[in-house]
Design brief:
Radius of gyration: 25 Å
Strand content: 25-35%
Order of helices and strands: EEEEHHEEEEEEEEE
Helix content: under 10%
Structural class: mainly beta
Shape: elongated
Length: 208
């Protein structure tokens, strides 16, 4: 290859997509969220340290181009922290007034319609039960859904499960508070799904 062509290293230095800026892989019907780490077997890892691939390329260059001077790479020391105890926590529902301003709408709005591109959306409504056990369904939601009734967690559903029946016990005719927390787990950023409407997040149709 060195004699007949050029080589392009897809990635020389690994990196991290911070915050919510991870991507998503398009694999058939299901989109697979990616972690924010993006080393991708690069010559330098996220810390800037050389990897096995770096040393393999270094050996190859020394063999084929001994006239080119090479310096030894810098290696940064690091350490691993384990078993860090959780010292404090706070409830999402107790801090809602400090986190966001409520927006009232007759129908659920998608994340993009609200001008929010990443993170979470919390949908809240109140409903009366027609029976002692009510069947709930979220229609066409992306990407992860967590259902709370009267502040109690009832169910968590992912792409392949959203739309399935959720049976909830409750007092007939009593009004119950329904909270649905939708999480955007990352958008596909390449290929045939790049501009697809499947990349719109939140509750995309409704709840019944």
């Amino acid at each position: 290859v060195l004699q007949q062509a050029s080589i392009n290293l897809y990635m020389f230095h690994g990196g991290t997509n911070f915050g919510f800026m991870n991507g998503c892989s398009a694999r058939g019907v299901i989109d697979l969220p990616q972690v924010t780490s993006y080393d991708y077997d690069a010559l330098l890892d996220e810390r800037g340290n050389p990897t096995d691939k770096y040393y393999a390329v270094q050996r190859m260059l020394k063999e084929h181009y001994p006239e080119y001077p090479q310096m030894e790479p810098l290696v940064k020391e690091s350490f691993e922290l384990r078993n860090i105890p959780l010292s404090q926590k706070v409830s999402l529902f107790e801090t809602l007034p400090d986190l966001a301003e409520p927006i009232e709408s007759l129908y659920p709005m998608k994340m993009e319609e609200l001008g929010q591109n990443v993170g979470y959306l919390l949908y809240r409504t109140w409903a009366s039960w027609d029976a002692d056990q009510e069947r709930l369904r979220v229609i066409d939601g992306r990407d992860r859904m967590q259902l709370y009734v009267d502040g109690q967690h009832i169910a968590t559903q992912y792409q392949t499960e959203i739309g399935q029946d959720i049976m909830v016990d409750g007092q007939k005719k009593a009004e119950h508070q329904l909270d649905i927390l939708m999480e955007n787990m990352g958008r596909v950023n390449y290929g045939h799904k790049l501009l697809a409407d499947t990349q719109q997040k939140g509750i995309r149709t409704g709840v019944c």
